[in-house]
TrEMBL record:
Organism whose genome encodes this protein: Roseovarius marisflavi
Residue ranges occupied by any Polysaccharide pyruvyl transferase domain in the UniProt entry: 66-316
Keyword set includes Secreted: no
Pfam families named in the record: PS_pyruv_trans
Entry protein name: Polysaccharide pyruvyl transferase family protein WcaK
UniProt KW Transit peptide keyword: no
GO molecular function: transferase activity
Amino acid sequence: MLKIGLIFHSASNDNMGVGALSVSEVAIICRIAEARNIPVTIKVIDSIAERPAYVTGEDVEIRPTRPLRKPLDFFKAIRECDMVIDIGGGDSFADIYGPRRLTQMFLMKYLTHLARKPLVLAPQTFGPFRHRLSTFLARQTIRLSAITTTRDNLSTACLREIGLKGDIIEASDVALRLPYDLPPKRVESGPVRIGINVSGLLMDGGYTRDNMFGLTMDYPQLMRDILQRFADHPDNCEIHLVPHVISWKRGALEDDYAASVKLSEKFPSVTVAPAFTSPSEAKSYIAGMDFFMGARMHACIAAFSSGVPVVPMAYSRKFAGLFGSLGYDETVDCTTQSAEDILTRIFDAYDRRDALAQTQKTALKTGLEKLGFYEAALGDLMERLNRKS
């Protein structure tokens, strides 16, 4: 029985994007295991959480721990595994989220190396690394890893720029594989369903509450303007606010759901989507939209991978990196473009959404093909380790 540990994944994170990575990773591992006849158990080494886990299965164990407070407990959990897969929360292997998160990432990686367990860096965003120490440590831990996989060409370029010359697999986001339920067929003469993800994080100015990500416009006002224009649109638009970070703690900084409810008070005709309990539930809802936009990248990936024309609203380079690598160039940049430019791009994309759906279909095929490179490398490693065990 091959024992696989997952770190910097999460079985119960409030952020459905982090959850989408975890659910998708488990689905990928199980598919590989079945195809190659490798018996596996999966241990999600996660922080302690209050909400029920949405990563489940007979061969899945949730192992709660606090690496920064109890590193020896984390080390013990790692020692029980044959291999470890680290997805970095999707985009946390960078300087932009502050020193605490990066410190935890380095600690978990180096303890895995110390335990002499093969470390797989699953498809994720790498960088930017703006400081000498973080650049040095990143370079060293990546060199020690068994597999290094980026999810976009900008991350691959970043790793080359910091001096890494070894094998790097450029894949795509594992959440392209996130399972979901197909929406029921719609009446063609019905309203146009517009899905809008409002980021609670950006509504509050980031973690520091002072425009942490350097947006070039008033984000709350931009969201109000988008809602007003769709409400006034001559098409029969049915507007849905779709949260993708849903906190169980009242007053949490990142809560999209609370931000959506507050915004809906000024626009009573809009529908606020339910407080989803799992990433697949969120994707199933998004799949029922006719057009989508949002600043949570995995809400946009849910739309993209379920055939819904989407305009990602970037606050970091991970958006352009991921979608641009697939030939899907509809991302707007909230750190460089004006509010009026963004509004123009969104409504231009809305008007040509049928053509956009075809471009999206081609880009998704490219993404799944690239993701196959990671799946093949992961399967080969699992097979080698299984023969040794």
